[in-house]
Amino acid sequence: MVYSRESRIKDVLKSPVGHDVIAKLLMQAGKSMALVENPIVGNIKLKSLPKLSRGLVDDSFVDLLASLFNSVPDTPQPYDGPIQRAWWKEAVVYQIYPRSFQDSNGDGIGDLNGITQRLDYLKELGVDVLWLSPIYDSPNDDNGYDIRDYKAIMKEFGTMEDFNRLLDGVHARGMKLIMDLVINHTSDEHAWFKEALQNPDSPCRDYYLFRPAKDGKTPPNNWTSFFSGSAWNHYPEQSFWALHLFSKKQMDLNWDNPALRSSVYEMINWWLQKGIDGFRLDVINYISKAEGLPDGNETVGKLMGFTGVEHYFYGPNLHRCLQEMHENTFSRYDVMTVGETPGVGIEMAKLLTDERRKELDMVFSFDHLENPGKARFDLYRYDLRCLKEILCDWQQHYGNASWNSLFFENHDNPRMVSKINPDPAFREVIAKLLAVIQFTLKGTPFVFQGQELGMVNASFSSIDELRDIESINLYHELLQKGKSEAEALTIINGGSRDHARTPMQWSGEPNAGFTAGEPWIRPNASYPAINAESEQQDAQSVFAFYKQVIALRHQNPALVYGEFALEPTPRELFCYRRVLDGAEFYIEINLTEQPQKRKAKASAYTPVLSNYTKPLEMLRPYEATIYRI
Ligand code: TEU
Ligand code: CA
What we know:
Oligo-1,6-glucosidase, domain 2, globular, binds 1-O-alpha-D-glucopyranosyl-D-fructose, binds calcium ion
């Protein structure tokens, strides 16, 4: 189908991009999909949108939508057959942010030997796979997400020998290890970029996105960087500009260049040859940019907070590139892949992960990390009732050819417990409630370091305490826009990525047992109360709960492969069954701080695990219980 101004909404919804973009725009506006799914709205033509929206969108917006919908013509193919079993579907993944995990040599920076020292802890928890945020050689403009040399280890983290020892230690314990693969961009200190700058005739020049100024002076287009300002660097000696979607030192690669693509595949195979077990692929959906790098639409820019995204979040060659990469690398090994794909909704995700298409095993979609209409830096209380709606959509409609990822935290987001309810009285019950959801739904759970302790947000009292380039740049941008220092700091405290990057809380010792030296970032003041050592000794701790719920999942295939059946309840409750070959579990959750009436008499079932000790007549605040039927 070819889309134009004449297309009707109901037809647009049949295109995966159309469906997901409309869902995203509605969500951003705080509205539900139901709004467009009724027959009257379904018959509206795209060309009527400017009038209907009273000028909120114009004709150019409509044309942009139509061209987006046409850019990827593939549609998901239904598959209701049995789920294909795989080791990575049964695995529990644990994300390590190496800089903040464990320092072994007193320089205040976490390192590979530190991780090796803690492998028994991870084994005790029940983890199957470790994912390491980048450990490659890097000038650390963005803590390793700016890679200078893909085949070397960052000096602060150790040596290749340390890495080999870590990998052996992981395998010796029956665990696996996956690496972070950052191939949308490299550091501007990478040999390819340096060569491209020094020698414009070098083949490396076309590895990046160099463009002349638009009118002799201004950047080639209006795209903005995720870390503030224009997405273009100016190289005056050459009167050229180069694209960077992230920091000024993270230069975007040109995936339309075949030589660049083979260089990347060669590097991937080099690591796979070393025996690692897979990759998490950084912003992998951004690699293909729209032909001609056109200006971003201002309306979309305002809605999304960044200008230009519509031209690369789901580019025209994305699927081709992923299929080619899969064929030349992953398909030759027994490994897992998970793509980080901001902005990707359920229909696009189906195309990216459908096993028959051979692209990626899983993706991280982010729709559930904020409430509708909210963004990460907005100050609000996260409402779990919205989480239920999004998760249910994926549980019920993703199909059996694709496999979910399940996560609430990572190194880019504040702690989930704090977002939901910062009242310390509820910390443990909420942390356990989240674990119940994460380990009883269909998909592979990804735990971020410290989540298993119920770690909470920090409270930064000055910008000097922050380390993240995003926070620091945003702070200065806010001051420039007229905010006071206190106002700017409040906003940064709301959404800073540094909340997740304070040191892992190992014990009540100085600096949380993370380092014997001066830590690169201040530990969260909560560590005397919240730490691994004390939680390992406490049968009621969040850590103990994680151990139990992970073990339960490992022992029961119904919790992995079982059918998901939602029980109809009021919005305040989240109740469902997981069913496989006669084995059946019932999960009963109160999503609110208020007591709620139970839906069914769960008294007939056997409680297996709960965040409260004994069931009462009413469901208590945030009560979450797993029953066996
Ligand atoms: O993140 C990509 C991404 O889009 C975000 O989560 C990002 O941190 C945020 O939206 C910025 O506004 C990945 C990595 O996870 C992140 O740590 C890196 O900084 C980024 O890519 C660039 O490599
Ligand atoms: Ca160190």
